[in-house]
Amino acid sequence: MSSLFNKILEKENLNKEDLICLLNAKDNDRKLLFEKSAEIKQKYVGNKVYFRGLIEYSNICYKNCLYCGIRAGNKDLIHYTLSDEEVINAAKFAFENNYGSVVLQSGEIESSAFTEKIDKLIWEIKKLSDSKLGLTLSLGEQSEETYKQWFKSGAHRYLLRIETSNQELYSKIHPHNSKHSFEKRLVALNTLKRLGFQAGTGVMIGLPFQTIENLAEDLLFMKEFDIDMCGMGPYIEHKQTPLYEFRDKLLPLNERFDLSLKMIAVLRIVMKDINIASTTALQAIDPIGREKAIKIGANIIMPNITPGNNRDNYLLYENKPCTDEEVEDCKTCLEARLHFAGAEIGYGEWGDSKHFANKKD
Ligand code: SF4
User: Fold this and answer.
1) From the CA of 59, how far away is ligand 1's center (Å)?
2) H/E run at residue 56
3) Residue 340, Cα to own-chain centre: how many angstroms?
């Protein structure tokens, strides 16, 4: 057992070097890290896992991020947008099955028609559940007016992943134009926070050109930005993307997975009372990947409730799991898995970020 490692685990404020040391943990140190993060999770956010039923509204995106399977430049993609009825039925399913919350996610579209469409759906979701369903949006960068309108209509959480907080790396994984500006993304994140949303972000782990230092900086970025929620997971390459060219620079999948678990554990230690999602990308590598993340620090799961025939077309990365399951099967399967992981499901609860509430007090 390394006493230096133990000293770091006991520190109140972790600096970049400490974070690098934690992310590099191996063998017994790795075990100690996971024990510590599990203990902190239990103490600050408890044993409950909250469901966010994920509705992938549309795979149309006007951006061209170099890593993403639904980028505008992917000409092999069959585009879809759910009908209002499909969205409402999915939300009804979530409500009737006590999911507590839904997430409305989509490729990035900025237009007044899109703003109004989403606004209408927010109202419908609130109406069908008598305002009892919590609502997270993950619809990319939008104008302040649009964010304001959606917040006023009842959306209260917003997830906007920065993907990497390192500007140089950001420029390697995005085209160089105003549509893909790092600064614009930061402004959007700040706006969401200022308007009163519970604001979430996240990063990809194991990108080509990414270093452990970059990941430590990502953790410091999240702390400094004072996020309320986080959704992060391993980078998984997609053949129909420009970044695929650099696949020989990648860590093996099992190492990307392990690094992702460590990122979740360290973030739980750094930001004790935030909500951390156990993302589907973890399950794409390890069949019980999401349950492993729940054990060591995550407390949110996003079961996919998009109508099954569209899920194959929302492949941000390859080998995305459960695209051929019906929502009922997905629910039963998750219940069993979480039970196995020793977690309790917070049925019918919003499970809002405790960090957000604690900041207000
Ligand atoms: S990552 Fe998001 S914004 Fe970028 S291409 Fe994919 S869906 Fe569009």
Assistant:
1) 9
2) strand 48-58
3) 23
Using the atom order of ligand 1, give the atom closest to the CA of residue 67: 1
Q: Are 98 and 129 in contact (CB under 8 A)?
A: no
C-alpha–C-alpha distance, residues 221 and 74, integer Å: 31
Quote the tokens at residue 277: 């999602």
Collapsing DSSP states into helix, strand and coil, what is residue 164? coil
Helix axes 112-128, 84-96, angle to 10 degrees: 30
Residue (of 289, 222, 230, 229) closest to 257 by Cα position: 289
Show the tokens assigned to 58: 């549309």
Atom of ligand 1 nearest to the CA of 69: 6
Determine which helix (DSSP H) or strand (DSSP E) holds 85, and give its type and residue range. Answer: helix 84-96
Q: How far is the CA of 276 from the centre of ligand 1 (A)?
A: 21
Residues with CB under 6 A from ligand 1: 61, 63, 65, 68, 70-71, 107-108, 140
Residue 35 CA to ligand 1 center (angstroms) comes to 35
Residue nearest to atom 6 of ligand 1 (CA): 68
Please name the amino acid found at residue 16. K
User: What is the tens place of the pLDDT at every residue in 97-114?
Assistant: 999 999 999 999 999 999
pLDDT exceeds cutoff 80 at 331? no
Indicate if the alpha-carbon torsion angle 232, 235, 236, 239 is positive or negative.
positive
The domain defined by 22-28+40-360 folds into TIM Barrel (3.20.20)
Residue 36 CB partners (closer than 8 Å, separation 6+): 9, 265, 269
The pTM assigned to this predicted structure is 0.95
Structural Rg of the chain based on CA atoms: 19
Tokens standing for residue 227: 């996020």
pLDDT band at 329 (very low <50, low <70, confident <90, very high): low
